[in-house]
Amino acid sequence: MNNTPKTDSSEASNAFWNIPAEQQLKQLNTTAQGLSNAEAGQRIKRYGANRLNNKKQTGNLRLFLAQFKSSIILILLFATGLSFYLHDRLDAAIILTIVLISGLLGFWQEKGAASAIEKLLEIVQIKVSVLRGGIATEIAAESLIPGDIILLKAGDIIPGDCLILESDNLFIDEAILTGETYPVEKLPGVLPVDTALSQRTNALWMGTHVQSGAATALVVATGQTTEFGKLSLRIKLKAPETEFERGIRRFGYLLMEITLILVILIFAVNVYLEKAVLDSFLFALALAVGLTPQLLPAIISINLAHGAKRMAEQKVIVKQLASIENFGSMNVLCSDKTGTLTEGTVHLHDAFDLSGNASDKVSFYAYLNSAYETGFSNPIDEAIRQYRQFDLKDCKKLAEIPYDFYRKRLSLLVSKQGESILITKGALTNVLAACSEVENADGTLAPIESVREQIQQRYEDFSRQGFRTLGLAYKPMDSKARIDKTDEVGMRFLGFLLFFDPPKADCAETIKQLRELGVTLKIITGDNRLVAATVSKQLGLAEHEILTGPEIEKMSGSALINKVANVDLFAEVEPNQKERIIIALKKAGFVVGYMGDGINDVSALHAADVGISVESAADIAKETAEIVLLEKDLAVLVQGVREGRITFANTLKYVFMATSSNFGNMFSMAGASLFLPFLPLLPKQILLTNLLTDFPEMTIASDNVDADMVSQPRRWDIKFIRKFMITFGFVSSLFDFMTFGLLLWLDVSVEQFRTAWFLESVVSAALIVFVVRSSKPFFATRPGKYLVAATLTIVAVTVALPYTPIAPLIGFEPLPIRLLGLLGIIVMLYISTAEIAKHIFYRLVKM
């Protein structure tokens, strides 16, 4: 679909910050009540989906053709077409059929994988609140169109370029677009045409997010017509290469080097020996196909999609398939404690005055502050509202200064029986910074400095008991309609609010399971060190050294790198320090996962090797994360880690299979062609060998995995794979040459020679899977039922093939029973020798 907007949209979106809201509404033919559903349906057809990448989902035909994009396959198809006209049409047709069947298998598997992933991603789709016919409706962000009226709150991603219609203490984090560190305040208005992008305070930009406050805005541009869309087109944004993708690429390079050298050498020697040029060319190309794991992309897609589906059953949604490897390789998990290690339900224990006694006035003022708060939903205010309710019929909200992560305060201007009162609650230190006086239990006032030590002592006592303690302050105000941060001065400290969030009952066991999986849990929290230490002790975490935010602030980057490995508890941490901790851990050599669900977790989620969030998280956190949990529970994460490692282990199995007998067989075939007066296998027979040996490997995603492959994090190791290829390729070639010797000694015909070697090659390559799939003895580990069934089916089909009516078409002849028995003995000797070689290999070479 063409996503280029028509003239009315392009004119409306041009310098929209310079156009009054009423005029902009008219240009977009909409109203402050939003579009009707019927009009929205028409516009989505005109503008297309609200995506930066507007490419349609790959169609079936395109996906099928993509199976043949390999240069080797294209050359093979060309050569097949040439032989169709110049050589043997039947052979060409058979080769073409084999290649098409191989392509169909890859298409069928990749199509199923893509469909499964698409369904999983729909579960964690970003939603946006839109006015449709004056009614607020939740829709997918992709369905947003110019002319929509959207409602924004803290944590929301801005889904398109917008003009602000109304705002309430709205602060936007625009770092992704402008590089500005601090959030920018946004207000309705009209600005000059030449206003710089970073100064357009009446406009919102796609990809930025709401730090605090709320707004109603008119969508002016979507998708690639937004500023962020234009930027992405200019610089061709591409996600950084993951460790998994890097491993696949390096493995591909390894095979490419070997294949290129071997093919050129074999073709040149066969031509030198005056064998038919076209046959030699097709033979060399067929060898290249045999050496190349054609189905590797499909196998990887199948494995990752299968793993993603299994992880979804464990309530873990994978947004980026390649992140599964990082998930399985993760050896450090950083997490906040609230809701993950604790119940996540914050309770207000009590409201105390300065003397440490329960106070109705502190409870009432805290209730006033929380009842009228509209910035964003949070458990603190919900706990206050649930603890005790008051009659507010004589009260009225006048104005609000929303909470932000720099002030760490929330202030409400309230009218109580005609008297205006500014009530502030927040982090104790930040509330005290706004106070000049303190109100005693008897109502008398005193300078704040006279009781500061007493306040601090009570705060520490509460913290040692495991309570999170907030401060509450107020001051009478003159009647005024608006307030701002400059009004948060000269306040009276009133008392303490004590909250608790009990640890989860099974959390200690879950942490133990993570430790057994080789994953160290590190807590990063904004709570003070006393509360954090108490909760950590309750969770059964080892009492390691604690590092606080102020201490981190004073440390250099190298000092932090040397420190983080031995610290499992980071307390009093600022949002920007979370990212520093993650980066330091990565530089110290760890594969780091970060679990966060808030606006202030975004930078840490982005910095981590694998960002983990939850379905109920702020939109910006959910969008940034690669993995989303449907439940905020470490137990869910444990299962996800196991499934991630199973997926990676099964992917490696295919690599081991492709680099063992297949490589050995093709190498042997190349060597044999140099001294045999005929081609040891015809090109069509080589391709059939490749097809039959690949078929069982498509079931590898459902194979069982040994416990030791899941117990510890593992990563791509190309050196290990190269050694594995050389070792088991040599063993395979040894028995291939034994087969040559036997056939030459028996002086069989050329057709029987090819038939016998075909049987030995396919059967040995199919059965070797039971050896190389595990480092344990093949009889000590149980393969998956689908793998067993597929392998035995292929063995049966291969043995029966020379005795079928189509055998002459492929160039096969029936073999005498005696020769079949001898081939069976060679295959059994090969399997036994490979098992011994495996035992020695794993003893000498550590993965």
Automatic annotation (TrEMBL):
<dbReference type="InterPro" id="IPR006415">
    <property type="entry name" value="P-type_ATPase_IIIB"/>
</dbReference>
<feature type="transmembrane region" description="Helical">
    <location>
        <begin position="724"/>
        <end position="746"/>
    </location>
</feature>
<dbReference type="InterPro" id="IPR008250">
    <property type="entry name" value="ATPase_P-typ_transduc_dom_A_sf"/>
</dbReference>
<dbReference type="GO" id="GO:0016887">
    <property type="term" value="F:ATP hydrolysis activity"/>
</dbReference>
<feature type="transmembrane region" description="Helical">
    <location>
        <begin position="752"/>
        <end position="772"/>
    </location>
</feature>
<comment type="similarity">
    <text>Belongs to the cation transport ATPase (P-type) (TC 3.A.3) family. Type IIIB subfamily.</text>
</comment>
<dbReference type="InterPro" id="IPR006068">
    <property type="entry name" value="ATPase_P-typ_cation-transptr_C"/>
</dbReference>
<feature type="transmembrane region" description="Helical">
    <location>
        <begin position="63"/>
        <end position="86"/>
    </location>
</feature>
<feature type="transmembrane region" description="Helical">
    <location>
        <begin position="92"/>
        <end position="108"/>
    </location>
</feature>
<dbReference type="Pfam" id="PF00122">
    <property type="entry name" value="E1-E2_ATPase"/>
</dbReference>
<dbReference type="InterPro" id="IPR001757">
    <property type="entry name" value="P_typ_ATPase"/>
</dbReference>
<dbReference type="InterPro" id="IPR018303">
    <property type="entry name" value="ATPase_P-typ_P_site"/>
</dbReference>
<dbReference type="Pfam" id="PF00690">
    <property type="entry name" value="Cation_ATPase_N"/>
</dbReference>
<keyword id="KW-0547">Nucleotide-binding</keyword>
<keyword id="KW-0067">ATP-binding</keyword>
<dbReference type="GO" id="GO:0005524">
    <property type="term" value="F:ATP binding"/>
</dbReference>
<feature type="transmembrane region" description="Helical">
    <location>
        <begin position="815"/>
        <end position="837"/>
    </location>
</feature>
<keyword id="KW-0460">Magnesium</keyword>
<keyword id="KW-0597">Phosphoprotein</keyword>
<feature type="transmembrane region" description="Helical">
    <location>
        <begin position="251"/>
        <end position="269"/>
    </location>
</feature>
<keyword id="KW-0472">Membrane</keyword>
<dbReference type="InterPro" id="IPR023298">
    <property type="entry name" value="ATPase_P-typ_TM_dom_sf"/>
</dbReference>
<dbReference type="Pfam" id="PF13246">
    <property type="entry name" value="Cation_ATPase"/>
</dbReference>
<keyword id="KW-0812">Transmembrane</keyword>
<keyword id="KW-1278">Translocase</keyword>
<comment type="function">
    <text>Mediates magnesium influx to the cytosol.</text>
</comment>
<dbReference type="GO" id="GO:0015444">
    <property type="term" value="F:P-type magnesium transporter activity"/>
</dbReference>
<keyword id="KW-1003">Cell membrane</keyword>
<feature type="domain" description="Cation-transporting P-type ATPase N-terminal">
    <location>
        <begin position="15"/>
        <end position="88"/>
    </location>
</feature>
<dbReference type="InterPro" id="IPR004014">
    <property type="entry name" value="ATPase_P-typ_cation-transptr_N"/>
</dbReference>
<dbReference type="InterPro" id="IPR036412">
    <property type="entry name" value="HAD-like_sf"/>
</dbReference>
<feature type="transmembrane region" description="Helical">
    <location>
        <begin position="281"/>
        <end position="305"/>
    </location>
</feature>
<dbReference type="GO" id="GO:0005886">
    <property type="term" value="C:plasma membrane"/>
</dbReference>
<dbReference type="InterPro" id="IPR044492">
    <property type="entry name" value="P_typ_ATPase_HD_dom"/>
</dbReference>
<dbReference type="InterPro" id="IPR023299">
    <property type="entry name" value="ATPase_P-typ_cyto_dom_N"/>
</dbReference>
<keyword id="KW-0997">Cell inner membrane</keyword>
<dbReference type="Pfam" id="PF00689">
    <property type="entry name" value="Cation_ATPase_C"/>
</dbReference>
<keyword id="KW-1133">Transmembrane helix</keyword>
<dbReference type="InterPro" id="IPR023214">
    <property type="entry name" value="HAD_sf"/>
</dbReference>
<feature type="transmembrane region" description="Helical">
    <location>
        <begin position="784"/>
        <end position="803"/>
    </location>
</feature>
<dbReference type="InterPro" id="IPR059000">
    <property type="entry name" value="ATPase_P-type_domA"/>
</dbReference>
<protein>
    <recommendedName>
        <fullName>Magnesium-transporting ATPase, P-type 1</fullName>
        <ecNumber>7.2.2.14</ecNumber>
    </recommendedName>
</protein>
